[in-house]
Protein 1
Amino acid sequence: MSSGPRIGKDEWVAREGEQRERRSGLLGGIARAQARTPWWAFLAVFVVLACLVPVVTSDSYIQRVAFDTTIFMLLALGLNVVVGWGGLLDLGYVAFFGFGAYLYAILGSSQFDIHVPTIVVIPVVTLAGALLGLVVGLPSWRLVGDYLAIVTLFALQIFRSVITNGHDIFGSNVTNGVNGILKVDPLSWFGHALPVSHRGLFNPDYLYVAIGFFVVIYVALRFVNASRTGRAWRALREDPLAATSMGMPIDWLKLMAFAFGAGIAALTGTLTASVNAAVFPDNFDVPQLITIYAMVILGGAGSQAGAIVGAVVVNVMLESLRSPDNSRWVFYIAVLLLLLPVLRSARKYLLLVAATVAFGFAVHAIAGAIDPAWTRGTTPGGGAVGRAIAHWAIVPQSLGSTREASYVLLIAAVLAVVTIRGRWKLVALVPTLYLASFVWENVLGPQPEITRYILLGAILVGVMTTRPAGILGERRVEIV
Amino acid sequence: MVPGCSAARDHTFLLLVDQFIQTIVDSVTLGSVYALIALGYSMVYGILKLLPFAHGDVFMVGSFIGLGVLKAFGGAANPTISIWLVLVLMALAAMAGCAVLGVAVERFAYRPLRNAPRIAPLISALGTSFFIAYSMQLLFGANHRTYDTFTMAGGKLFLSGITWGPLHVSLVRIIVVVVAVVMMVVLWLLVSRTRMGKAMRATSFDREAAMMMGVDVDKVIVFTFVLGSALAGIGGVLFSLRTDVYSQMGFLAGLSGFTAAVIGGIGSVPGAMLGGYLLGLVETVTQTYISTGWSNLFIFSILVAFMLIRPSGILGKAEIKKV
């Protein structure tokens, strides 16, 4: 490392980089090894692992989850272009996804009895999506930040309004309204249709197709990012005024970012429409938008690898919520992982875990002695771990108003722990963690469909307030 | 010409006039609530230059607090104390509860990001909005509930009121409009006449300069959130007197409130009120005269066009970009 900041880098960033170089121990070693490995090696390993999913397991549910995760990876990559690179808050992103799906469905179903071959329809839909992105991106010429966010959110509402009322556009039924378009054609290859299900199970060929698209998009975006346009996007994100004064066409750059994102989303829409053989208005709404945002933000806005990590982590987490036994594992592991950066010391960490376990048994025993009904309930899902947990966490027979109270109390406790500093934080964490397990076993665990959205909201707030760069994002400094 | 035909035409004409006047009355009632939400948005935006997405959900929580107080006093049909007192308590509890919630949201979701790039607090606000809406759904379910205003005081709220020819303005509408207007006047006095109001205006004009002049900016921001959230809370109670209470109602209400603030000119208190009433008018008129299914499309298209043509709003000053 030469002395002094490297040219083109802020001094603070350079010092950060040097610190990372010097970092000792296991984490430092991993970081250095990671920096030496070329990006395509990671991509190759990842793709091989993803392709092995149908080989390793014949469980069609897991194969389908792998497919959905790939879909989300594509969507996150596209959103990353707009939000991560362009720095434009596009809250209408799902509209492009829905537009692609609906256009695919209209061009390949019995709705109008048109059946355009896949080889034609995918480029057409992608281009149409990109064009729509250009149009929706136009307000970015005049509006920035929050106003742009709201206008794009309105664009999503307009899109939803069109598709839900699309059964009567000047008398003709275009989108079949809330009932959606059914019997959408599967993908085809020169006249050979690729069946969606194979003997009633998910056809893994679709996973390979999705991974194929993913690799193409990933590599293409990688080159775009390194190109003039990519560098100009980042300049636009950091400081639009400086970018203009350097002669960059920022209006055009904004449109390009919108068009790229929208094109990728529309392309992804064709895959979902074909694999589900149907499209419904409710598949393209704000909850899906938040899900994709949570993925990009958690992984780290601006980082392609981050978008992928975010998509995998969030989607696997959301899927695992469906079964109480899996979700319990996810919950306890997530809590243990989250505590690592909070405590930053192995001794404190072990102390805290031991204290929480002991505290739990003590409270469990006391509660059971006062009123046995408090500990007589069963954990959702049961299972060996579930029964074991029931000996530690309080699972009452009936909850009554403890349900609401414990949840509100948990939020208050977590917020309190965030504000407390020093030794008392450790002390306060013990009952908070125990309360968290109570709430998980009794309130959140049994309601996975709502819990998933609560978790997504919490991820967005938590990541933004503690580590805005996400897991893999570049750390940025605001230079004033 | 057949004489009866003309009479019939007169009758249709009268019906149209009635419908039109009724639409105006509707729009004023709805607009009052929008104005209350818009004020919160406008004040927060004026001071923090931040769009508090979760404001609509604070409104929703206010509505739920009102329901909780109503249930605690025995429900709408036969309350344990006078129904008028219950209504006052509902409003006060919603205002207090929402003020606490608003301050908590500011402290934990917005304050850590005060100096971050502008996109960060927006995302955090979006997450907060989602978190609050689904937390309420977790606790109280997704079903629609009502205050059962029809049964309050033997239906007096709907049956009595001002009747003028075929036109009937029910008592509940009068209450909504009067309370909202009183709240707005109080707010306007607070902002324009008090010391804290002056500090608020100074902070909104230039936060750094205000800080250098000895204004405690943190205190001003907290106060702004208290005011805005309390208004949203009472707005929630007023809104639900005539419609339902449900956990996802905050999203659209918040969107409408923000839009009203933008139409009027964000950062301007009279602007937010004007915007609220205008939006109420646009919404009721499109719903009455254009099919309800497509009315959303019209409303949103009008709003997009408006924001593009005049982003500074009707009463807002065109922003001069300081570099």
Note: Strands of chain B lie at 145-146, 161-164, 167-170, 244-245.
Protein 2
Amino acid sequence: MIRFENVSKTYEGQTKAALLNVNIEIEKGEFVFLVGTSGSGKSTFLRLVLREHRTSKGHIMVAGKDLNRLASWRIPQMRRQIGTVFQDFRLLPNKTVAENVAFALQVIGKPRSHIRKTVPEVLELVGLEGKQDRLPDELSGGEQQRVAIARAFVNRPMILIADEPTGNLDPATSEGIMKLLDRINRTGTTVVMATHDVSIVNQMRKRVIELENGHVVRDESRGVYGYQH
Amino acid sequence: MRLNYILSDLGIGLKRNLSMTIAVVVTIWVSLALFGSALLANEQVDLMKGNWYDKIQISVFMCTKDSGGRGCSGTEVTQEQKNRIRQVIESNPDTAPDGVFGESKKEAFAQFKKLYKDSPIVSTVTEDQMQESYRVKLRDPQRYQNLVSAVAGLPGVDTVQDLRQYLDPLFEALKGLKIGAYIASGLLLLAALMQISNTIRLAAYARRREIGIMRLVGASNFYIQLPFLLEAILAALIGAILACGTLWLGVYFVVMRRAQETFKVWQWVGASETFRATLIMVVVGIILAVVPTFLTTRKYLKV
């Protein structure tokens, strides 16, 4: 589903590479943790998958397409197959829960009847039934993140990218979010999650890719957060 | 149904930026009105030129006893000289076919009396003091020099008069005014262009959250740009319509009601010229809105 072939990325005006010779293959339906300290290259990895930046060297294949060869006007189309969740939720404060989720479908031109049917379904999936008319301000952090996940998932993407989705949440709430991501993964969606949260990684026992200074230093299926020295 | 979202977005955008939108409308209004006036002034100068140049003829005045021109020798022009002059004029390639008319002393006197009928000078002038002349129509009013130099100095020719030498400075002055109007409206249009670009920048900044999410979920660039484009086009259209209205009022009150009444002999710009000018203004107005909006939003959408 996602393949990195000898990918290097050096940001403009910098000498140090953010990613260096990364080779990774993530299969359809996998759940992958991306771990590493701040500045290790996790965010760069995710941004490259979203084609927010181009690689400096190497190729990235997403859903069978070479991102380097993708015409810029096709990028939006490609992004519709990827859902994205962030640490800071990124909800629109003046729209209700249902409107926030519906927004993602409206702006890609989905018909109203489809939106009316899909939005309640996905809100139920993330456990927000009955809260569709609330504004983001009136929700807890965990609930806001559920709205963001609903928005990311409402178009049934093949890939869900989560950049520290539990970074602003307490452990109990984080667990709920992880259960939700796991449920989404079970529907066949590939999930790639960058995180610092040791206990979550250790609990889930999923594949772990560790980055350090732009290199992949570890890639274990059913791994834990750090080495046991 | 897609249009619904776009239109509601447009409404929100216009409300949010109301003062800026009004500023854009006013700038476009004033600059386009000035631009339209420059267009009309241009038409007017052309009309006047055509008007005058059509009537332009070269007058070749011939000697009397009293005239002191280069070709005169203190005597009346002879029939032989007159024939020779006529021949030179008729054989000149710039003379219009059948474009030579002779004016006798008698005719000149009648004309003179008509022109100065209320002036005491008429009683002091006799028919004998009038000059005989040839009036020459030109094939192309722009090309007169050749004929003038061919005729001037022939025996029996007193002076050669060419109206252009009086009209050209006038038209030069009008041309200067016209260019000034174009430059002024050009500067204003440039200001409008930059103002629209700034307004769009502000609007894009106000909507950066929405835009970020739209990009994230894969909204097409055109979809993201469309509300901005519609907003700018709407503002430009309102400005253009106001400018067109202003121009029509100006033409109606200044040209049709005043100038045309006062200077009936001249041709004046009318409805058809004004209509043409307003069409150009609307097109310029829309270009003015679309181009900066497109460029500015593209900068924000760079992936």
Note: Chain B touches chain A through 18 residues (CB under 8 Å).
